[in-house]
Amino acid sequence: MNLEQLVSELKQKKLKVTPARKAILAAMLKLDKPVSAEEIGEDLAYKDRSIDKAIVKKVQFHEPKTRYELDLNNHHHHLVCVNCNKIQETDLANFEDQ
After folding, report:
1. Over 80: is that where the pLDDT of 18 sits?
2. Domain spans of the chain?
3. Is 15 helix (H, G, I), strand (E, B) or coil?
4. No. of H helices and E strands in the chain?
5. pLDDT per residue over 30-79, tens digit each?
6. May I ask the CATH architecture of the domain 3-73?
7. What are the two backbone dihedrals, phi and then psi, of residue 76, each rounded to the nearest 5 degrees?
8. Which residues pair with 28 in a beta bridge?
9. Residues 4-38, buried b or exposed e (16+ Cβ, 10 A)?
10. 42: part of which helix (H) or strand (E)?
11. Partner of 81 for a Cys bridge, out of 19, 33, 86, 97, CB 3.0 to 4.6 A?
């Protein structure tokens, strides 16, 4: 997905395409992982709180800060390294219950 497609999603959801929204989405695309507000610029993330209801969702990883990721309607899970806290997306659809 690219920025133009995300802007189109905003328009379909009847949300204004503001410079702040575009900047948040561009930063999230560039980072390509669940990010904290600090990682995309705290003041930028909080300028427009309604964006998380449109195409950005909040995710929690048992840590004090909230992270955000693009909600691209692809069900996935996250693995979090207990040593370095690196977050990796994973698709567990192919795993069987044991």
Report:
1. yes
2. 3-73
3. coil
4. 4, 5
5. 878 887 777 776 555 555 555 555 567 777 787 777 777 777 777 778 88
6. Orthogonal Bundle (1.10)
7. -155, 170
8. none
9. eebbebbeeeebeeeebbebbbebbeeeeebbebe
10. helix 42-47
11. 86
Sheet with 35-36, strands from edge to edge, namely 35-36, 67-70, 56-59
Token look-up 């993330």 returns 45
Structure tokens, 32: 């390509």
- Dihedrals phi, psi of 42, to nearest 5 degrees: -55, -45
Query: What gap in Å lies between CA 82 and CA 62, rounded to an integer?
Result: 11
Angle at 87 between CA 77 and CA 29, to 5 degrees: 85
